[in-house]
Amino acid sequence: MRTVLRRPDFRLLFAALVASMAAESVLLLALAVWVKDLTGSDSMAGATIFAVIAPMALAPLVGWVVDRYRRRPFFIAANLVAAVLLGPLLTVRDRSDVWVIYVVAALYGLSYITLTAVLNGLIRQLVPADLLADANGLLQTVRQGLRLIGPLAGAGVYAAVGGWLLVLLAMTGFLTAAAVVGRLRVEEGAPSRPGRRGPSELGAGLRHLTREPALRRALLGYGLGSLVMGFTESLIFAYVDLGLHRDAAFVGVLVMVQGVGGLVGGLFSAAVVRRFGEVGALAAGVTFFGPAALALAYPRLWLGVVALLLAGLSLPLTMVGLNTLIQRRTPPRLLGRVTAAAEALVSGPQALSIGTGALLVGVFDYRLLFALVGAVTTAAGVYLWRGRRLTTPVTGPVRIPAPRRPADDGVLSRGGS
């Protein structure tokens, strides 16, 4: 990771992303807390998260728009728009204004998809193929670190001062990201204008995902695991209550343990990609979730700590493996659509499984459901591991190549160089 940080262009992008990720981390949980405070309703608070996820349905359109513009100016504009979209939250006063939070949450979810789609293309533009895993691993390490402190800090600021300060802090984060990337100098050629129009061009990202063997296997395996991974969002409360016989607040302690595992996973994810390839890293991440879920079916605190460390370890491995695979196996002209389509194909099943888990935990024993999650994710991990040879591990020392010229973006990288 130190190697990629020696590149001045990536250091600027990294600083901008730290600012925007910090804004995201303090905002999401606080929006749900804000709704809960105004309404007293758990279901209305939970609907805030649904409002953020719902715009995933527009992912193909978002990806198509992103691919039609240069990455750097689009990234700047998207961060500026994200900051402006938060402005209406400053008008929220009482229960009658809850609709404003829902609208802003949905628009924020749309901006999140947009930023994710353009970011993959911008990283691909700046970073050589053999350093992509290092760049993605570094960003995941920071994201996992912010998951440890960001949501709690955001909820604390809201409780101490109110939502207005939280909104201003988040807006400042996005504005800072836009200003820092404004200093970035990237030579970008004009994006190619698609020859086709309509649904055919909107679906180009999904078609690429289904036709490229490594990407197809990655999305099938990860998608299968995602169908049950979301169960744990509800099951963890039953585990703490019925298994450990502790108050619901103890979930926060376990989330912090999971965050520690995420930090470790982020630090080692690039090395795992270089050793086993992108699909191998993704397989390791999904597989780690299996024994973690199985361990939670047996309520013992020490075993729960081990399980949450494993669950935390799995997330950055899956994300670094998947993002690096997309960047290396996708032509630059399609990166926005492919990234957005992949995000929708992963987040859609996860959102469905969160709702399904909330229903099932009221009908079945939570231990049985944890065992089901463990069995399915282990099977998904094995399926991915059997396809690890679809990607080639990077061997030898990582070098620091000269920055690429715009013409290099026409080359489709098939692995580490």
From TrEMBL:
SUPFAM superfamilies per record: MFS general substrate transporter
UniProt key word Cell membrane: yes
Compartment(s) of residence: Cell membrane
Transmembrane segments: 12-35, 47-66, 98-123, 167-186, 219-242, 248-272, 279-298, 304-326, 338-360, 366-385
Bilayer disposition of the protein: Multi-pass membrane protein
Alphabetized UniProt keyword annotations: Cell membrane, Membrane, Transmembrane, Transmembrane helix
Highest taxon, organism lineage: Bacteria
Region (Disordered): 396-417
Gene Ontology cellular component annotations, sorted alphabetically: plasma membrane
Domain Major facilitator superfamily (MFS) profile: 1-190
Subcellular location, principal: membrane
InterPro entries on file: MFS (IPR011701), MFS_dom (IPR020846), MFS_trans_sf (IPR036259)
GO MF annotations in UniProt: transmembrane transporter activity
Protein name: MFS transporter
Organism: Micromonospora tulbaghiae
Lineage, highest ranks first: Bacteria, Bacillati, Actinomycetota, Actinomycetes, Micromonosporales
